Structure of TRAP transporter small permease protein:
Amino acid sequence: MNVERKYSLEGTIATLLFVALIMVVLLQILGRTNLVAGPVWTEEVARWLWVWMAFFAIPEVERQNAQLKMGFLAEMLAAKVQAVLYLIIDVAYFGIMVHLSFIGYKTILRTWRNESVTLPTSDALLYASAFVASFFVLFRIAQRVWRQVQNLKAKGEGQ
């Protein structure tokens, strides 16, 4: 029995990053008043948190299959043709994500010696967000492709 969980690891990470982002932005706002001395690092941390959050939200959207798509042309096709079309699209998407993962890896290597402006870390940590999240995306695409193939087999056996 395949029960889809309500919460996923990547969705939880994206949520925690969002909460941290709210806290950092609140600290930025308070830093512009006379109440708190505003730290200079909040601007960069806010940007980094946003990037990591956005990249971890992508696999959560993939898990829920809630991405935006222009399906009105595909919906005119027969159900089996639709299923094959979406399978082809997902296989192509998987290949593109493998290539983007490789680009992310090369970017990490290229930026490893670049130092962040206000944080005591390498810029590679920022670019690692795409590389790390891409594995979650690949996992979710693979899951969807597996389900699509199983559904196509079941429909083929039912005829």
The chain has a mean pLDDT of 90. The two ends are 24 Å apart (CA to CA).
